[in-house]
Design goal:
By secondary structure, this protein is of the alpha+beta class. The chain has 11 helices and 10 strands.
């Protein structure tokens, strides 16, 4: 017969045991959920910092280096790390810009292949780094690391590197998702900063070009006014004086024709001489305003005549040069003339020069090369002559380059576009001798 007494006492014990097991299971679940909640809350701490604080302070213009330090500090606190670092990529190298605890600044050279591989990699560990970025783990080959590339559109911007020795085997599970999102958010901020910096640099460059253009126009207007005053002065002091003398002598001849014909005849010869002198004066003045040979025969012939008038020995090489718009021919002619005048005045008595004209693509190029004394461009700067040449060429979309050094002569190289496809900043190559 069964022992109901034992069964009676066994049922409460079993129930108590089952109850204890339920309590333990529920408690364990609550503890696990609490740990997961805390871990998720901790993970959100770092993400929220980058999403909110980092982005807003970056938009306000806070220094990037300070924000990056706070990023690594947030990582250190979030995952209870032994170390966190942030590296930025620039000019073929990765450099540490923030670390916690602080470490000396390090720099790693990165090949283009390594840069491309890192930019497209996912969050990885030491094994990956030993293959693709061995210098990164050279001093810590066995450290439990997680490395998150920071990239935008396949372009490497930097790395986030974290290390945790305690529970290092669980670091990937704890941190990879957060690191991936952090890298994405930080990358967006860094990319925006770089774009903003490039935009500001472009705006500064445009402003500088606008200022230079305004100054150039002011100089051109001032030069035109000065040239008009010179022409007026030359007419007054030169040709006008001859014309006044001619008018006076003509009236005197008219009076002497009745009273002293012989003296009138002699004055007639003087009158002819004065007319010829006035014509010479007008020709000289016209030559200074715009060379007739330049408009009638072209750039090569006008420069050949100018080279013959230059006090120093000049060789002209202008094979295959045709006709161009008048403003282009004038700009090149006067730039070459200015360069030859500078060489005649400053380069020395035994100086010789070579003037070259050639076409390349859609550009007309010229070069004036002398073997004179030369000068230090950095110390002397741009004088009036060099400024005039630059303004002339700039007005027709051309470029000018001056090369000189003491004792090594001077080379003036310029180019002007002759067609619509020529970019104003294009500088064709040197001609072959």
């Amino acid at each position: 017969m069964p022992d109901f007494t034992d069964l009676r006492f066994g049922v409460p014990a079993l129930a108590a045991m089952l109850g204890a097991m339920v309590v333990i299971t529920v408690t364990a679940g609550l503890i696990s959920n609490e740990r997961r909640r805390r871990r998720e809350a901790a993970n959100l701490t770092a993400i929220d910092f980058v999403r909110s604080t980092f982005a807003s302070r970056l938009a306000r213009g806070d220094p990037m280096d300070e924000l990056l330090v706070q990023v690594v500090e947030a990582l250190l606190e979030t995952f209870k790390l032994d170390g966190a670092e942030l590296w930025l990529y620039a000019d073929g190298a990765l450099s540490t810009v923030a670390s916690s605890p602080h470490r000396p600044v390090a720099k790693l050279n990165v090949t283009p292949a390594e840069q491309s591989i890192a930019a497209n990699a996912r969050v990885s560990g030491s094994a990956w780094a030993k293959v693709w970025l061995p210098a990164l783990v050279k001093d810590r080959p066995e450290a439990p690391l997680r490395i998150a590339p920071i990239s935008v559109s396949g372009r490497l911007l930097g790395l986030i590197v974290i290390e945790r020795k305690g529970r290092g085997e669980a670091l990937a599970a704890d941190a990879d998702v957060t690191l991936e999102e952090l890298a994405r958010e930080v990358g967006a901020g860094l990319n925006k900063q770089q774009l903003d910096a490039a935009l500001h640099a472009s705006l500064d460059q445009l402003q500088q070009q606008a200022d230079e253009l305004q100054a150039s126009r002011a100089r051109i207007v001032a030069a035109a006014d000065a040239e008009r005053r010179r022409i007026e002065r030359d007419l007054h002091d030169g040709a006008q004086q001859y014309l006044v003398a001619i008018a006076v002598k003509a009236r005197l001849i008219q009076q002497l024709a009745r009273t002293d014909p012989a003296r009138g005849q002699a004055l007639t010869q003087d009158l002819v001489h004065d007319v010829e002198s006035a014509l010479d004066e007008l020709r000289t003045l016209a030559q200074g305003i715009y060379p007739p040979l330049l408009s009638s025969a072209g750039l090569a012939e006008a420069l050949a005549a100018a080279c013959r008038r230059t006090p120093i020995s000049v060789e002209l090489k202008a094979h295959g040069i045709g006709r161009y718009p008048p403003e282009l021919e004038a700009a090149v002619y006067y730039c070459c003339l200015e360069a030859l005048q500078n060489a005649s005045k400053h380069a020395g008595d035994v100086t010789s020069a070579t003037v070259r004209l050639w076409e390349e693509g859609d550009a007309l190029c010229f070069e004036v090369d002398d073997n004179g004394a030369g000068f230090d461009i950095e110390r002397k700067g741009s004088g009036a002559g060099l400024t005039n040449m630059s303004d002339r060429l700039g007005a027709v979309g051309g470029t000018l380059r001056i090369e000189s050094a003491p004792g090594q002569g001077t080379n003036v190289h310029g180019a002007v576009p002759t067609g619509a496809s020529t970019h104003p900043g294009h500088m064709p190559a040197e001609p072959q001798p």
